Amino acid sequence: MKILLLGSGGREHAFAWKIRQSPLCERLFIAPGNAGTAALGENVPLNPNDFEAIGKFVREKEIGMAVVGPEEPLVLGIYDYFKNTPGLEQVRLIGPSKTGAQLEGSKAFAKRFMMERGIPTAAYAEFTADSLAEGLDYLARQQPPIVLKADGLAAGKGVLICRSVQEAQTEFRAMLGGKFGQASARVVVEEFLDGIEFSVFAITDGNTYKILPVAKDYKRIGEGDTGLNTGGMGAISPVPFADGELMARVESRIIAPTIRGLREIGAPYLGFVFFGLIRVGKEPYVIEYNCRMGDPETEAVFPRLQNDLVELMMALDDGNLSSIAIQEDPRAAATVILVSGGYPGDYEKGKAITGLDEVEGSIVFHAGSKLENGRMLTNGGRVIALTSYGENFRQALALSLRNAGKIQYEGKYYRRDIGFDL
């Protein structure tokens, strides 16, 4: 089967790496891809949000499966476009419908969805510019820290944890005033939950689901989880505290009612669900949903997934997902992200990358890189992801860190404390 993979980050490189291991993949195209995916298939200069151009390419190349990596095309409705366009409706589109993708596309939608089904999550209220005064008054009555979330997509940076009412009110005004563009035209104010976070992933056909290896990512730029939020600075899998008892609660109280709820609202969902969770005491709560795999968690999860990924994704359409058992590598995996100087703020691109050929024992996933005139150059905030195996995550992390020291480019930065809180 010919497969088209949409996206260009480290997650997509991990998808490409896993897809190419399947004998079911005849040929792989990545749109637009990066310097790493170019070694696994053919990069094609298509914008994942240009549905018409993608549809034309799919018809011309006789693509049998289209896998959507990033959230934006899903939220914009690429699933619905394929299913309602002659010549595309038979293509296996891996991703939810536009309605299903609202779990990530709208924080307010997700909170209402959870509240209606008794899925454990933080208490909340939502406001727009029309209810600014009401929102400021609401904030004045809250106990810090206070969580503010842009309702729409904000590239993983639309969540603020404010340590005082004054800070919350200032940021609240800024968000409704356009700090995150249209994404913060509506702001969700949430109760702060004090606990430890982890990431659970499920693949589902909308009826049946299978739980993939559990991971934990680290979003803050600074060691000790300090500084600004990023798209993710590293991840580990499995998570030591995610034992059988906790995961039984996660499945019965969160995963099962979520999949059932999607069915109840008539939202077709053939793809991945990310459950961003927090353990408070012994209880799991939902912080957020994503309608796709996470990044950088995918770079730690897929290396531990021993199943044929293409076979798993085909099962979504074929109706035999329930017959497949998920197989996990017993080893731990640890991912370290190398980023550009200045990230997640302003940073420069085009810095020469050296030392990749010196990496030993780790998997190299490219996130923001490009090949130009035979030179490997930085091309994003997150540049390289290094994933290693070990008997435990600390052993795996030590190998990733050793190899991180071998790669060089101007402004290179990475966290050395991934897993510090475990």
Detailed description of the structure:
With 422 residues, this protein is of the alpha+beta class. Among the domains are: 2-96, Rossmann fold (3-Layer(aba) Sandwich), CATH 3.40.50.20; 123-191, Dna Ligase, domain 1 (2-Layer Sandwich). 28% of the residues lie in helices and 28% in strands. The strands form 5 sheets. Strands 1, 2, 3, 4, 5, 10, 11, 16 and 17 form a 9-stranded mixed beta sheet that branches. A 5-stranded antiparallel beta sheet has the order 12-15-18-22-19. α7 (132-140) runs antiparallel to α8. The protein is globular.
Descriptive tags:
single chain, 422 residues, alpha+beta, Rossmann fold, Dna Ligase, domain 1, nine-stranded mixed β-sheet, five-stranded antiparallel β-sheet, 12 helices, 28% helix, globular
Please specify the SSE layout and strand pairing.
Blueprint: E1 2-7, H1 10-19, E2 27-32, E3 42-43, H2 51-61, E4 65-68, H3 71-76, H4 78-83, E5 92-96, H5 102-105, H6 107-117, E6 124-128, H7 132-140, E7 146-150, E8 159-162, H8 165-176, E9 186-191, E10 196-204, E11 209-211, E12 216-217, E13 220-222, E14 226-229, E15 234-237, H9 244-264, E16 269-280, E17 283-290, H10 297-301, H11 309-318, E18 332-339, E19 363-366, E20 369-372, E21 375-378, E22 382-390, H12 393-404
Parallel strand pairs: 1-2, 1-4, 2-3, 4-5
Antiparallel strand pairs: 5-16, 6-9, 7-8, 7-9, 10-11, 10-16, 12-15, 13-14, 15-18, 16-17, 18-22, 19-22, 20-21
